[in-house]
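Long-time lurker. I teach an intro course on protein structure, and each term I like to show students one example going from raw sequence to a predicted 3D structure in token notation. This year I'd like something fresh instead of my usual example. Would anyone be willing to generate the tokens for the chain below so I can use it in lecture? Attribution to the forum is fine with me.
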Amino acid sequence: MQKYTSFGTVYLVGAGPGATDLITVRGAKLLEKADIVFHDALVEAEMLNLCPQAIKVPVGKRCGKLSSAQHFINKRLVDAAQQYKTIVRLKGGDPMLFGRADEEIGALKKLGIEVEVVPGITAALAGAASLQQSLTLRGVSRSVAFVTLAQATEELKSAEDNQIQPIQSPNADTLVYYMGRKDTAKIAQQLINGQSNRYANTPVHVLEAVSTQRERHWSSTLGELAKGAADAWFDSSSPALIMVGEALRDAMKIKENLESSSPKINDSLQDSQILTNSRRRA
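-- Reply from a regular --
Happy to contribute to a lecture. Here you go:
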């Protein structure tokens, strides 16, 4: 095993939503020269083909399954930095979103180990691309919230009824829930019953394994989701994303609603100002 007299550099790299060709160029180049790669369970096997020269260490954390404790992952990164020059911590999606990056960065910086973060495409953006529907939409949605109930379940439960309590933040126009598969019906019920302008007919899209060949969609409404209509549809082996909001309604219906509720825009002045190339000036 090759030893280094000083610490190596640890790169926290976002693998993106799943598809190998959606990793950033910088991320792919780091994988090509990595000495060792610590990868999440959500990282596709094909992604690891980008680093055939590297030692590959799985440190996945999956709900309900045997997982690596975070403090143990931190220690392994520190140990690797004492032995190797280029260490990659490969995380699904973006490292800085629901990825406990702050804990790893803190443990490394405490010992003076250099850390760099390489962003990745988070699943919500890949989901919007797959649906070909924007998370924001003029006149409909001007805010988006990324939400997760994972890793905080006990804090959100009531001692009296053992039910997950409504979280404080999802007041955005479009909501995207990560790691919410087992709580989908409860999430929908809370949104309908809460003061969030969410109704039984609010559009919902559930996506699994976004951007991979296993990608699947379930599209309906909050009311149907609250009834548990999607429960039997889920594949427990695939990561799921729940997207809620009027911006996700059928594009033509949104256009009809906007046109019926908004005054007509007079484009005549704008049209009259259009000049031919010969009349334009720099």
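Some talking points for your students: The beta strands are 9-14, 36-39, 55-58, 86-91, 115-118, 144-148, 174-178, 203-208, 216-221, 240-244. The radius of gyration is 23 Å.
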